[in-house]
């Protein structure tokens, strides 16, 4: 087998790669360097960027370790699709490529009360952001972090629409990483939790309901806000809004065959499957509370109240019949 020709630029990259491996105590012998040299000569940094996503994900383990090192050190700019789809081990490689700041980051996270595992997952998320931006983690700015986070979360939702929870997990790790970066003095603006604002969607749905029905139900919601917790009101408003949408789509009678809203609501509780697709989850949840065997359907224990020094049975407690004489 003929030896590959040496390229000065490739040898410079390999020297830096070998130096980072040796500085972190990793093995940097010929079995590690030779596949890396072959990859750089055959494909190269520019050639890898021109590959398709499936081709980028099909490289060998040794080549993947080199590509990850090129990415976390800013020598190769990946796409957000590759960072999300490849399950890149950016945190592990960035830990020894940026050893000093990694130790500082983990110590800061520990001082904030984060567990070691949680801190490492935060570091992985920060490494993804730094790789996408193309800077070292300790040089990230607030604007760069926000822009990269939006790209990563949007890409996660687009590539894996059947598992939206993965985007939520990524968002949680990014929020924790941003918090640690703020307390480490890297970001000068405190992070804030981001929640999707669906007020416009709720307003448009209420606008599609007949005005009299909408005013009645929304008036009830406003009255209940005075005495209930905000979490309870969120559920009540959602159920009433979806019930109003169902009534509107059913034309007052609908598939339930009921003329009045009260009878329609009772029929809908009996069979939530009659509701439209978007209204089923909340109505089925309310319906589950009324199924036989549920805790709310258990008979109440007989209660007695004290009256004038003696106990007297309540009206709902059956009285004993006197034995026949």
Can you offer a commentary on this structure?
With 325 residues, the protein is mostly helical. It folds into three domains: 1-76, no CATH class; 78-195, no CATH class; 199-292, no CATH class. It contains 16 helices and two strands. The protein has helices at 8-23, 30-42, 44-50, 53-57, 61-72, 80-85, 90-97, 99-111, 116-133, 142-159, 165-183, 199-207, 211-224, 230-250, 261-270, 280-288, and strands at 304-307, 310-313. The chain has a two-stranded antiparallel ribbon. Strand 1 (304-307) and strand 2 (310-313) form a beta hairpin. Helix 1 packs antiparallel against helix 2 (30-42). The longest helix is centred in the C-terminal third of the chain and has 21 residues, at 230-250. The chain is elongated and about 80 Å long. Mean pLDDT is 78; it is low at 251-260 and 289-317.
Rg (CA only): 31 Å
Record the strand order, biggest sheet.
1-2
- How does the overall form come out from the CA principal axes? elongated
Strand content: under 5%
Could you give the distance between the termini?
114 Å
**Which percent bin holds the helix content?**
55-70%
Low-confidence stretches: 251-260, 289-317
Give the topology string: H per helix, E per strand.
Answer: HHHHHHHHHHHHHHHHEE
| Number of helices, where a helix is a run of at least 4 consecutive DSSP H or I residues | 16
List the helices and strands and how they pair.
Elements: H1 8-23, H2 30-42, H3 44-50, H4 53-57, H5 61-72, H6 80-85, H7 90-97, H8 99-111, H9 116-133, H10 142-159, H11 165-183, H12 199-207, H13 211-224, H14 230-250, H15 261-270, H16 280-288, E1 304-307, E2 310-313
Antiparallel strand pairs: 1-2
Helix pairs in contact: 1-2, 5-7, 7-8, 7-9, 8-9, 9-10, 9-11, 10-11, 13-14
């Amino acid at each position: 087998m003929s030896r590959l020709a040496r390229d000065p630029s490739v040898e410079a990259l390999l020297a830096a790669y070998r130096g980072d491996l040796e500085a972190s105590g990793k093995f940097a012998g010929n079995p590690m360097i030779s596949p890396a040299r072959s990859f750089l000569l055959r494909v190269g940094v520019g050639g890898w960027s021109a590959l398709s996503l499936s081709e980028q994900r099909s490289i060998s383990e040794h080549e993947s370790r080199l590509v990850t090192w090129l990415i976390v050190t800013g020598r190769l700019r990946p796409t957000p699709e590759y960072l999300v789809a490849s399950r890149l081990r950016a945190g592990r490689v960035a830990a020894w490529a940026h050893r000093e700041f990694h130790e500082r980051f983990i110590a800061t996270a520990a001082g904030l009360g984060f567990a070691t595992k949680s801190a490492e997952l935060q570091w992985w998320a920060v490494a993804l952001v730094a790789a996408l931006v193309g800077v070292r983690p300790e040089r990230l700015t607030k604007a760069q972090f926000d822009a990269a986070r939006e790209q990563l979360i949007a890409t996660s939702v687009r590539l894996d629409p059947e598992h939206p929870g993965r985007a939520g997990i990524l968002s949680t790790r990014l929020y924790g990483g941003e918090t640690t970066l703020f307390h480490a003095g890297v970001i000068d603006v405190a992070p804030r939790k981001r929640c999707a604002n669906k007020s416009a969607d709720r307003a448009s749905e209420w606008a599609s309901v007949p005005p009299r029905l909408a005013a009645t139900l929304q008036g009830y919601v406003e009255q209940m806000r005075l005495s209930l917790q905000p979490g309870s009101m969120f559920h009540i408003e959602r159920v009433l809004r979806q019930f109003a949408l169902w009534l509107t789509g059913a034309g007052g009678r609908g598939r339930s065959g009921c003329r009045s809203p009260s009878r329609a609501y009772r029929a809908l509780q009996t069979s939530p499957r009659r509701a439209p697709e978007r209204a089923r989850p909340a109505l089925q949840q309310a319906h589950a509370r009324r199924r036989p065997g549920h805790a709310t359907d258990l008979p109440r224990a007989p209660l007695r109240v004290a009256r004038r020094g003696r106990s007297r049975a309540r009206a709902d407690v059956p009285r004993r019949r006197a034995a026949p004489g």
